[in-house]
Q: What sequence folds into this?
């Protein structure tokens, strides 16, 4: 009996040590995974900020060119020609402002979703899917901003009527911008849905634990 008891205790110790080792390994893997996610998120943020800075520079250059074009129009002796050029510039700025407005709305929505992610993460809700979707949305939105900067550069090059080639390029840019903004919105909507689903899963898990302890 003592021999059997000694064997049982020894087996228990071995199993316990194996469990502890496996638990420590699992914790290490989880920790490494979390660290990898944090690093990837930080790297993505740095890259996106660099792109945003480059886009901002392009927009400022285009704005300066528009101001120069307006200054040139004032020296135009032909009143009708000057009026036509001014109307072109106003029309182009109006079109670009519409795109800027759409981008601003998506930026505001992104900020709201990120605020909810931070809030729910603090409550123990799994926000991994939402974070990935927001990252996708930010990437799409940055792409839209870059396309808008390209359109700005195209429209600020001259106050003359656009060539057929430039009109085609502008139409392509407009379609690309609209598609990217739409994809941004879709990713954010999916992020919102994933947060709702994650909250539901957590609540159900907590209710199950409570029921089992009764």
A:
């Amino acid at each position: 009996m003592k021999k059997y008891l000694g064997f049982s205790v020894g087996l228990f110790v071995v199993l316990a040590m194996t469990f502890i080792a496996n638990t420590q390994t699992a914790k290490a893997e989880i920790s490494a995974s979390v660290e990898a996610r944090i690093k990837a998120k930080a790297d993505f943020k740095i890259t996106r900020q660099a792109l945003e800075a480059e886009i901002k520079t392009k927009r400022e250059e285009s704005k300066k060119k528009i101001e120069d074009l307006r200054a040139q129009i004032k020296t135009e002796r032909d009143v009708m020609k000057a009026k036509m050029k001014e109307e072109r510039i106003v029309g182009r700025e109006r079109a670009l402002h519409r795109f800027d407005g759409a981008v601003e709305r998506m930026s505001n929505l992104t900020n709201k979703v990120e605020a909810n992610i931070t809030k729910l993460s603090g409550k123990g809700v799994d926000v991994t899917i939402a974070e990935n979707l927001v990252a996708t949305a930010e990437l799409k939105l940055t792409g839209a901003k870059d396309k808008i900067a390209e359109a700005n550069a195209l429209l600020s090059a001259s106050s003359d009527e656009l060539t057929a080639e430039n009109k085609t390029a502008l139409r392509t840019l407009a379609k690309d911008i609209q598609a990217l903004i739409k994809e941004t919105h879709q990713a954010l909507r999916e992020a919102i849905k994933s947060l709702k689903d994650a909250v539901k899963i957590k609540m159900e898990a907590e209710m199950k634990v409570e029921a089992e302890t009764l």
About this structure: The CA atoms of residues 119 and 125 lie 9 Å apart.
